[in-house]
């Protein structure tokens, strides 16, 4: 089994605090559907980032600098990939014409689903690495391939406004009774004694599909930083929890980060290469381990640099909202 700094007590305390925050978010602060303002989004973004950095400080004091740097690197990668995820969500919501007051609900439900799916992905991925060590080569090759594709085309493998979106929507309408319009913030309604899925539920399915595609890239990327189950899980959960507030903060300016995909492509390619070098290539190449401090500097530099260049050299045409 992988060595983990997480004890049953630390796992229990993290999960307890995590679910308390979820309950407060859904049951107290955001119980009623409403349009999220920029000020509210900024406030909650600061809250989630501050809580994540506070947990990072706990990791530093409890487990040492190495684990703290692993957490911070993994968290930074996941947050950067989440920004790309936000771009896809913006496209999906514009495509489905979701009313602004319902966005919070579908995002919250989508994030709950993402947390469960990512927990499963992390468990399966770590079990696969433990059982078949050379599967790290596959994860590394996947990251390098995805990174190069981003660099060449500037496009990810995520569902956009095209065929994959329409496929999910078509299949949902084929297999389920679906209403022709939104029915308030509800995902299901009963009409004439029959159960219907609403258009909001179809939107939720599309969001979950997009997140599954992103998880295929983001979770192996974190494995390239660390295989400690506690660090992998907690960094992923902390990043995903801030995704909803970050969406409302960035939805109107996300199109301006047009160079971010290239920065992410370089990050994924770097992490994939780091993963393969760490395994070595038998007699052809000895194992080469890149220190976590260098990895953190490279990741932060690539992400920060691509965002800065996007702002310094804005796109010639910024798409307008539909």
Terminal Cα span: 50 Å
What does the main sheet amount to? 2 strands, antiparallel
Number of strands: 2
| Structure class | mainly alpha
Low-pLDDT stretches are 157-165
- Biggest β-sheet: strands ordered side by side in the sheet: 1-2
Mean pLDDT: 81
Q: Estimate what percentage of residues fall within beta strands.
A: under 5%
Number of domains: 1
**Total helix count?**
11
Query: Radius of gyration in whole Å, from Cα?
Result: 20 Å
Q: What helical percentage do the residues reach?
A: over 70%
Give the overall shape: globular
Task: Describe it.
The protein has a two-stranded antiparallel sheet with strand order 1-2. The protein has helices at residues 8-29, 38-63, 65-96, 100-131, 135-153, 163-175, 199-223, 229-241, 243-250, 260-279, 292-312, and strands at residues 188-191, 194-197. It is an all-alpha fold. It has one domain (38-312). The longest helix has 32 residues, at 65-96.
Task: Provide the fold topology.
Blueprint: H1 8-29, H2 38-63, H3 65-96, H4 100-131, H5 135-153, H6 163-175, E1 188-191, E2 194-197, H7 199-223, H8 229-241, H9 243-250, H10 260-279, H11 292-312
Antiparallel strand pairs: 1-2
Helix pairs in contact: 2-3, 2-8, 2-9, 3-7, 3-8, 3-9, 3-10, 3-11, 4-7, 4-8, 5-7, 5-10, 6-7, 7-10, 10-11
Essential attributes:
single chain, 72% helix, globular, mainly alpha
């Amino acid at each position: 089994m992988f060595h983990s700094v997480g004890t049953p007590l630390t796992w229990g305390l993290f999960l307890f605090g995590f679910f308390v925050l979820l309950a407060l978010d859904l049951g107290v602060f955001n119980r009623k559907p409403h349009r999220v303002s920029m000020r509210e989004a900024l406030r909650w973004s600061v809250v989630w980032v501050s809580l994540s950095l506070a947990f990072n400080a706990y990791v530093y004091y409890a487990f040492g600098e190495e684990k703290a740097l692993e957490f911070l690197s993994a968290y930074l990668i996941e947050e950067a990939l989440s920004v790309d995820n936000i771009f896809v969500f913006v496209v999906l919501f514009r495509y489905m014409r979701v009313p602004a007051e319902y966005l919070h609900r579908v995002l919250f439900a989508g994030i709950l689903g993402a947390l469960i799916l990512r927990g499963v992905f992390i468990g399966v991925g770590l079990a696969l690495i433990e059982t078949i060590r050379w599967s790290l080569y596959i994860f590394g090759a996947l990251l390098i391939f995805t990174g190069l594709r981003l660099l060449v085309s500037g496009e990810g493998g995520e569902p956009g406004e095209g065929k994959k979106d329409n496929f999910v929507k078509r299949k949902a309408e084929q297999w389920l009774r679906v209403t022709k319009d939104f029915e308030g913030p509800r995902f299901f309604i009963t009409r004439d004694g029959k159960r219907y899925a609403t258009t909001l539920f179809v939107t939720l399915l599309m969001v979950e599909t997009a997140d599954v595609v992103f998880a295929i890239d983001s979770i192996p990327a974190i494995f390239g930083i660390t295989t400690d189950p506690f660090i992998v899980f907690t960094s992923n959960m902390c990043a995903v929890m801030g995704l909803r507030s970050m969406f409302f903060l960035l939805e109107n300016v996300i199109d301006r980060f047009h160079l971010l995909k290239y920065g992410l492509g370089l990050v994924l390619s770097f992490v994939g290469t780091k993963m393969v070098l760490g395994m070595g290539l038998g007699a052809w190449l000895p194992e080469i381990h890149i220190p976590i401090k260098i990895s953190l500097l490279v990741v932060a530099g690539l992400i920060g640099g691509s965002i800065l260049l996007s702002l310094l050299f804005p796109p010639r045409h910024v798409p307008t909202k539909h």
